[in-house]
Amino acid sequence: MTAQLAKLRSDYKAPEFRITSVDLTVYLHDTRTHVTNRMQIEPLAACTALRLHGEHMTLQSVKINGQSLTEQDYQITDKALTLHSVPNKAFELTIVNTINPAANTALEGLYKSGGAFCTQCEAEGFRRITYYLDRPDILAVFTTTITADKQTYPYLLSNGNAVAQGDNSDGTHWVRWHDPHPKPAYLFALVAGNFEVLTDHYTTKSGREVLLQLFVDQGNLKRADYAMAALKNSMRWDEERFGLEYDLDIYMIVAVDFFNMGAMENKGLNVFNSRYVLADSKTATDQDFLNVESVIGHEYFHNWTGNRITCRDWFQLSLKEGLTVFRDQEFSSDLGSRAVNRIDAIRIIRTHQFNEDASPMAHPIRPDKVIEMNNFYTVTVYNKGAEVIRMLHTLLGEKGFQAGMKLYVQRHDGQAVTCDDFVAAMADANDTDLGLFQRWYSQAGTPTVKVSQRYDAKAKALTLAFAQETPPTPGQAEKSAVHIPVLLSAYTTNGQLMAMQHPQLRRHESGSLLFELTKHADQLTIENVEEAPVLALLENFSAPVKLEFDQDFSDSIVLLANAQQDVTRWEAAQHIYTKLILDAVSNQNPLELPLPVAKALQNMAATPLDAALKSLVVTPPTLEEIAEYFTRNIPLAAIDDAVNSLRQQIANCLHNEFAAIWAKRKQEPYQLSGSAIANRSLQHTALYYLALNKPAQFSAEVARYFSKADNMTAQQSALQIAVHLNLDCKQQLLDAFEQQWQNDPLVLDKWFAIQAGAPHANVAETVATLKKHSRFNPDNPNRQYALYATFGRNMVQFHRADGAGYRLMADMISYLNTKNPQVAARLVTPLTQWRRYDEQRRQQMKAVLEALHKLPDLASDLDEKISQSLATD
Ligand code: B3K
Ligand code: ZN
């Protein structure tokens, strides 16, 4: 194992050379692809040596201005090629090298996915294709000529426009692509394969005709329509909401089966994990459809926020990712249910992001120190990054935010910039000071906001006291106050909205009042308040913080029944559930659903609230979310008992309501409308609770529903209910599903995941058996995520006291260490938090990590996470 050197954000240096254009010629071959890379380079400083990044390749030759260099003229290491002396004025550098795509199991650089060649260059994959200044602030114009066997690879694709093509006499053909937009190498893409193509057109608002092409494997064309429609919706939405229009004549998307992440926004040629493209009602659930829409949107929106304006260095990743996640969230909310989308986003933060903040890998949305960049494509950089953008939106309003966006684009189009540049554009466009707000970019950890309320009936005065505190995180012991927008409303006990006036409370466009907490502690006294109000605080989750506010059940019930915003009603129910669970855990008492709460839930079920909202309101927080309330000795079993008992009591008290929902459902053909999705969601929640309440009685009903299902949403829900509730029909359904879908890997992933996520004592054994399943290909990231990543999130079973879960995971991580370090590093995450568990588990996890740390050839991805985990105290 070689210790890897950390890079620091503060060490940034402007490049010493500029690469103005790159002319790549690639002869594709499975094991010996030949690359000629002709670059026009300009020195920017008085510097004679040039160090180019390059890994996993064989150098054939180097020429400067046509003159061959000898081995004395350069030095090669396993990471770089250094030319000792280069001209002090513009010159041409030609490098010829070979690479082995078939051996590339890391899926970074050029690799084979099934029968196709494809690339993944973000963050630092281009350096596995050829020697280059592989950093995002080097923007060059790319021309790419690809040659390959014509029969095997009829489609040869790269960025920009196809400008020339031809056939050779040896059965190969070639295509030349030119991308007029200067871009960093991480946005380079090359694809070759035998695809089916879905073609369509889009006319931009200024009249540009764009050819849209979606490339899928043979046989999958019928599953591509939805993604194409989502692409056109994205293009329209970005014009309407952000005034941003597409800038090339062609937009291509290729779906591949082997892909480490969701998708990649390469200029004009997105490469997608097939799970975010292929969708029809037989094989994709409602959630899958929504995910396709959101990821298609996300990658499309990067064309402006990421591609035309890119990151100066990788520490700035959230500049493009936080902003683009915010944009895709807004896209989904404008097209679908805003409240449901918001709740989904809140749940991601409260479970996964809070969890990351409490881990040894905690980092600010703009990290300061990185060893392996691939480890920083995190829920903090992406999702907390999006919350930070959302706070700016809350503070400035839609108009102010859009003015900031406009200025940002005007100032920085065509540049590689920093998060500070973005915030400066927002501040300047609104003539405001966001100096304090910028702390969100540098400070890691989850702030806690404590609020207390005191009402003086005689003086009719309400005093609200706010205090904030952020716990220390590795490398950041002392924390400062951050700028926290708190949206709030006040209601009477009858559920009427109350007017409140105070210089520090301003009316917000959402309908709430906005208070800005900028100090460690602040206090407001509000006059003329007629009665002690029921407060809704941190409405719409207006900041990514933990709220501590002791609210009586009776007040939460008022909000659940009356709040004007749906998210506030959902929050009221969550507040009740969380309090019940935490009380039961800390007092070691059995959990009991108070009668007024049961009544309030029954009333809610009878109101005309949106069906998807109802389904979410009756769903308590998960064990994973509750675990974030504990820093040490997480009482897994006690939380599990309390959550289960709460579910059981909801099932019991709402049995009649659930039975009515189930009985009244209409037998309609499958539709993908918002209301149909919402109804299915509520019906499946009802079926789950009915079966939980009376398993023996409902097993046959679940089996019948499964066998009659004409869509994957119904089929998957029935299977999940049967497996997770251990119904009598469980094995029958598992077998039927496997039989039906054994040749469809994306669908079979659901079968793997449902079993790996089941709350049963023998899940570790099940996972061990499933990994030997003939359809479990350990080299495909989707299979790993379905089986092992799902198992790692199954907290109670993964953390089984005998350590079986840890050993199982460690075996797979050792296998992946040399094969695919990115996937290995994802799987190690739950182990790195060993300090948060009881003594027995701590020792076992630590031992497993120490053994992994000693692996020969430990990948930097794993090394960084494991070292950090073992080092922190
Ligand atoms: N930008 C890519 C992520 C690439 C990850 C590389 N390890 C996907 C996205 O966020 O759109
Ligand atoms: Zn992105």
UniProtKB/TrEMBL annotation:
Pfam families per record: DUF3458, DUF3458_C, Peptidase_M1, Peptidase_M1_N
Residue span, Peptidase M1 alanyl aminopeptidase Ig-like fold domain: 445-549
SUPFAM superfamilies named in the record: Leukotriene A4 hydrolase N-terminal domain, Metalloproteases ('zincins'), catalytic domain
Protein name (database record): Aminopeptidase N
Family membership: Belongs to the peptidase M1 family.
Function: Aminopeptidase N is involved in the degradation of intracellular peptides generated by protein breakdown during normal growth as well as in response to nutrient starvation.
Catalytic activity entry: Release of an N-terminal amino acid, Xaa-|-Yaa- from a peptide, amide or arylamide. Xaa is preferably Ala, but may be most amino acids including Pro (slow action). When a terminal hydrophobic residue is followed by a prolyl residue, the two may be released as an intact Xaa-Pro dipeptide
EC number(s) given by UniProt: 3.4.11.2
One BP annotation, GO: proteolysis
Entry's Gene Ontology molecular function annotations: alanyl aminopeptidase activity; metallopeptidase activity; zinc ion binding
UniProt KW keywords: Aminopeptidase, Hydrolase, Metal-binding, Metalloprotease, Protease, Zinc
Residue ranges of domain Peptidase M1 membrane alanine aminopeptidase in the record: 226-438
Zinc listed as a keyword: yes
Enzyme superclass (EC): hydrolase
Entry superkingdom: Bacteria
Residue ranges of every copy of the Aminopeptidase N-like N-terminal domain listed in the record: 22-187
Cofactor: Zn(2+)
Species name: Pseudidiomarina gelatinasegens
Peptidase M1 alanyl aminopeptidase C-terminal domain residues: 555-871
